[in-house]
UniProtKB/TrEMBL annotation:
Obligatory cofactor(s): FAD
Binding residues annotated for FAD, in chain numbering: 45-46, 117, 272
Similarity comment: family membership: Belongs to the GMC oxidoreductase family.
One Gene Ontology MF term: flavin adenine dinucleotide binding
Coiled coil: none
Signal peptide positions on this chain: 1-17
Organism: Echria macrotheca
Domain Glucose-methanol-choline oxidoreductase N-terminal: start-end pairs: 115-138
Protein name as annotated: GMC oxidoreductase
Enzyme active site: 569 (proton donor), 612 (proton acceptor)
An annotated GO BP: secondary metabolite biosynthetic process
Keywords from the UniProt entry: FAD, Flavoprotein, Signal
Domain of life, per lineage: Eukaryota
Length: 633
């Protein structure tokens, strides 16, 4: 039996012990206390982070988390018994969200998964654990009212400590680092509860594309988690460095601490229906109405201090709308009395999307192993055995990818200034509002907020150090271009047929035509990969878009037909903006016009960052908890 730490060379690698008995899990309302100090709606990435920190800071205050899902094992993105890398294997539970047909991309529908499990989407995501550029957060902060007296600040310097606090990075073994040329800076990480590391395995063709990127002039950066990521980056993945099992909020912020927190209760298999203000929204905190998934029984719960909604970009606006928070006309159509008129609830919806390129090799390199090796029974058996060793080894230690480029628009295309001027012109002439969803384009506050967002995004696109494109690579013959700062906006609205079900999601992909200028610039940039010496030596030849696509119009048609409509980063539906700019929460995450009610999840972002959302969700949770602790201490 191995001890709690394994020492290899100069490294001390932690081993996460089996979770302790989860004795605070409740499955019936009769098991709950008469009241709680804090009630958190949603046991996902951010909600569990807040609960952990509150119960730690206030051992005499009680915290209840209400979660729709259950406590489940959450396998990694590529774990046994999956035998095909890149496929979809066993997973924790999730909601399936399919958007309405999207007019500007040939009526295609986006497909999104959202965690329905203790741990939320951190228990089902691709484990790519990058952070945004510092310029994203500084831009958010200026949008949300930076400098207003008494309010929290959200610039990079303000949030960076919480990124560090949330994660525990373990450096790779010296032999692994040397083999793959991994680089990192341990000083940008802290002793957090969520583990991250580099895998001890990469597919054999991995460095071919990295060499091509370097040849294209993309500079490698030693570390991309310190705020600067206009570079070729190594990205950690959210897994235990010894066992290679997924590290997620359900472990780090619940099962790892619940035995020592008698003030921390978790109610599973219950839905938060709404919050209720019997004496009006200025007399809080509200009651929390919940529904048992077993028998649909409704029950009101009492919070003595505050209620925090942390149900995610889809379900947070649904809870708020059911509670009477939203645009008057939309609530009226749903037969719901208006409690606070907030047009921003369920508006401003965004997700990352993009098209890409593919190629083939006429003279492929002597690359072994590639994912095709998993078809060899002996190789597969060894891969499974390696995954179960301590420390784990082999292909199952690799998630989706841990290598990516992040490039500013100015370094992508000579037309960058034209694109930026087009954005600024639509703000100046008032035409930007015409690209907003019809149900709020006439609202002055929403238009004002959208114009400010576009102005900030134009500033980001002008910045020679702020990335516009992300492209990841692990193996194969294709690359996707992620548009990091889309201009188009969608909506999340209650399902009027059944208001308790997954809400109706309308993606606005491509509704602002300048997005297609950016998509096209990104694809043209990636087409340069196959023209590099690094890949031409293997006979690389472009397959898509391909030689038949010659004009910009043809390229746009290709993009519309080939886009990934969601990279599963939904956000921004309860934005942290001033109320007169369409905001739902202020910089302290308090819902405008409502006492004792806050929101803490990815719905509060004003617009998408230049990163995947997992690390952002943890940092928002850490900062939200810090705000609450300072308030109640």
């Amino acid at each position: 039996m191995l001890s709690a730490t394994l020492i290899f060379g100069a490294l001390v690698l932690p081993v996460i012990a089996a979770p302790s008995v989860v004795f605070n899990v409740k499955r019936q309302v009769s098991q709950l206390r008469p009241s709680y100090d804090f009630i958190i709606a949603g046991g996902g990435t951010t909600g569990l982070t807040v609960a952990d920190r509150l119960t730690q800071a206030f051992p005499k205050k009680t915290v209840l988390v209400v979660e729709y899902g259950e406590v489940e094992y959450a396998p990694g993105i590529f774990d046994p018994p999956l035998a095909v890398w890149g496929g979809i294997g066993a997973s924790a539970s999730y909601f399936i969200v399919q958007s309405q047909p999207i007019p500007d991309v040939k009526n295609a529908s986006a497909f999104v998964l959202a965690g329905k499990v203790v741990g939320g989407s951190s228990a089902i995501n691709g484990q790519f654990f990058d952070r945004p550029s510092r310029y994203d957060l500084d831009s958010w902060s200026s949008c949300s009212g930076r400098g207003r007296p008494g309010q929290s600040q959200w610039g990079w310097d303000d949030v960076y400590p919480f990124f560090k606090k949330s994660v525990n990075f373990t450096a790779p073994l010296a032999a692994v680092a040397q083999k793959y040329n991994f680089t990192w800076d341990s000083s940008v990480y802290g002793p957090g509860p969520i583990y991250s590391s580099f895998p001890p395995f990469l597919w054999a063709d991995h460095h071919g594309v990295r060499d091509a990127w370097a040849e294209m002039g993309i500079p490698p950066r030693r570390e991309c988690a310190g705020g600067d990521k206009d570079a070729l980056c190594w990205i950690p993945i959210s897994q235990d460095p010894v066992t290679a099992r997924r590290s997620h909020a359900g472990i780090g912020h619940y099962t790892a601490v619940n035995a020592s927190r008698p003030n921390y209760d978790l109610l599973v298999k219950h839905q938060v229906v709404r919050v209720v203000y019997p004496k009006g929204p200025q007399r809080g905190p509200p009651l929390v109405e919940i529904r048992s998934l077993a028998d649909s029984t409704l029950r009101n719960l009492t919070a003595k201090a505050e209620v925090v909604i942390a149900a995610g970009a889809f379900h947070t606006p649904a809870i708020l709308q059911r509670s009477g928070f939203g645009k008057k006309s939309i609530l009226k159509d749903a037969g719901i009395d208006v409690v606070v008129d907030l047009p921003g609830v369920g508006s401003n919806f965004q997700d990352h999307s993009g098209s890409g390129v593919s190629w083939n090799y006429s003279k492929p390199g002597d690359w072994y192993p590639l994912p095709s090796a998993m078809a060899d029974p002996a190789f597969l058996a060894d891969a499974v055995a390696g995954f179960n060793e301590i420390p784990a080894r082999g292909p199952y230690t690799l998630a989706n990818s841990n290598s990516a480029i992040f490039v500013p628009l100015r370094n992508i295309t000579t037309t960058s200034q034209t694109i930026i001027e087009r954005i600024r012109s639509m703000i100046a002439d008032g035409s930007a509002a015409s690209y907003l969803p019809a149900d709020y384009r006439s609202d002055a506050s929403m238009v004002a907020g959208y114009n400010e967002q576009l102005s900030k995004i134009a500033d980001l696109l002008s910045n020679p150090h702020a990335p516009s494109i992300e492209s990841t690579f692990a193996t194969g013959t294709s690359l996707r271009a992620v548009n990091l700062h889309p201009l188009s906006r969608g909506t999340v609205r209650l399902n009027l047929t059944d208001k308790l079900q997954v809400p109706v999601v309308q993606y606005g992909t491509g509704s602002n035509p300048v997005d297609f200028d950016i998509y096209a610039a990104h694809v043209k940039y990636l087409q340069r990969v196959t023209k590099t010496t690094a890949l031409k030596q293997f006979g690389a030849a472009e397959v898509t878009p391909g030689p038949a696509v010659q004009t910009d119009a043809q390229l746009i048609e290709y993009i519309k037909s080939s886009m990934v409509l969601s990279f599963m980063h939904p956000c921004c539906t309860a934005a942290m903006l001033p109320r007169d700019k369409g905001g739902v929460v202020d910089a302290d995450l308090r819902v405008h016009g409502a006492a004792g009610l806050r929101v803490a999840d990815m719905s509060v972002l004003p617009y998408l960052p230049s990163s995947h959302l997992s690390s952002v969700a943890y940092a928002v949770g850490e900062k939200a908890a810090d705000i609450l602790v300072k308030t109640w201490r």
